[in-house]
Amino acid sequence: MRVKKAGVVGAGAMGSAIAELLAFNGIDVWLNDVSAPAVEQGLARVRSIVEELVRFHESRADRELEKIRELGVTLTAEQVSAVRSRLAPKVSRSRGEEILARVHGTVDLAPFRDVDLAIEAVFEQEAAKRSVFESLDRLLGDGAVLASNTSSLSISRLARGLGHVRSTLVLHFFNPPSQLPLVEVAGGVDTREELLDEAVELIAGWRNHRYPMLPIRVKESPGYLVNRILVPVLNEACFALESGVASARDIDAAMKAGAGLPMGPFELADLVGLDVSLEVAESLAREFGDPKYRPSVLLKHLVDAGHLGRKTGRGFYEYA
Ligand SMILES: NC(=O)c1ccc[n+]([C@@H]2O[C@H](COP(=O)([O-])OP(=O)(O)OC[C@H]3O[C@@H](n4cnc5c(N)ncnc54)[C@H](O)[C@@H]3O)[C@@H](O)[C@H]2O)c1
Questions:
Q1: Ligand 1: which of 40, 123, 218 to mutate, most ligand atoms within 8 Å of CB?
Q2: Does the Cβ of 191 fall within 6 Å of ligand 1?
Q3: In the chain, what are the helix, strand and coil shares in percent, each to the nearest 5?
Q4: Ligand 1: which atom is nearest the Cα of residue 272?
Q5: How do residues 84-134 score in pLDDT, each as one tens digit?
Q6: Cα(39) to centroid of ligand 1, in Å?
Q7: Is 31 close to ligand 1, i.e. is its CB under 6 Å away?
């Protein structure tokens, strides 16, 4: 599996970040959404991810010199310049421009005709994803691979009856992909087995801003792996909050300080998006029929009120 040109449908939180990841790994990417403003917003998100990376690298030497100053140590001009040359940015501004130049926006799917890989990252709703898959199926060349970034839905069902059915798979990236290296790789009933090995090999050759990517083979199953575990954790946290066991802040603090998690369940849900968290929980509850996956009323009410987490400025917490 060789990917020189890719397409991403859905320029939201994940689609734009996946596009940046592909471009960071030397792939030309077309990023599509339903309207010109949505595409523009996606491209702006890509720009801000790249700018943050460049800023981080450009300020490395300054940060180190500041730490040294705080220790009360005064360096000579020569030592300062040695530190600066040692900590010269690994990602320069021109490398940032190069990454950005590989990402192109489009409101129509025409540029997808000759992509090697198309990834859909639209809403977590079967009908929306299926309609994107059908459009892509008509357009893509024979050798192209059709992937979904679904967090919970069945790839066998999304791909049923498509011409490309043997070349469909789940590539489930995590938020934000520039920092989290995991990709769950799963095939449906009709996916070519070798395609999954090839996808794992391909992704294992990529890096994000921090780490080599980590593709993991997962069997097709509701919620695949990570969300199957995370959804009951978020649900239980909501139930504990609803029954007044502790405040949201204390539940998050407890899960970090007591369970060793890097983020509390509410902080994570606000980052993921409460609408996405709700859709994933509902999909797991539907598929397994097990009440442990059923989302709490609190989560539903927040979504009904339009409080979707960081992206709307309010979820379990408020953001400035
Ligand atoms: N948010 C997360 O933390 C996260 C993590 C992993 C996977 N996912 C999955 O990624 C997918 C997208 O999630 P998100 O958080 O980026 O959602 P989002 O709401 O931020 O973005 C979805 C985008 O898809 C666009 N869209 C909808 N229908 C479209 C169509 N027919 N053609 C083109 N664009 C269309 C919307 O305009 C929107 O910009 C979902 O399947 C979600 O489950 C999300």
A1: 123
A2: no
A3: 50, 15, 35
A4: 3
A5: 999 998 899 999 999 999 999 999 999 999 999 999 999 999 999 999 999
A6: 12
A7: no
Which residues form the domain of 276? Answer: 226-311
Q: Are residues 30 and 120 in the same domain?
A: yes
Tokens representing residue 291 in the block = 């009440």
User: How many CB atoms neighbour CB 106 within 10 A?
Assistant: 17
Is 80 part of any domain?
Answer: no
Residue 124 CA to ligand 1 center (angstroms) comes to 7
> Which CATH number belongs to the domain containing residue 198 in this structure?
3.40.50.720
217, 238, 268 - which closes a domain: 217
Output the CA–CA distances (angstroms, integers) from residue 146 to 10, 81, 133, 288, in the order listed. Answer: 14, 50, 8, 26
Last residue of a domain, one of 160, 191, 217: 217
Query: Is residue 193 located within the same domain as residue 301?
Result: no
For residue 272 and ligand 1, the question of a CB distance below 6 A is answered with yes
AA identity, residue 288: F
* Helices and strands counted in the chain (H then E): 13, 8
Does residue 77 form part of some domain?
Answer: no
- pTM of structure: 0.93
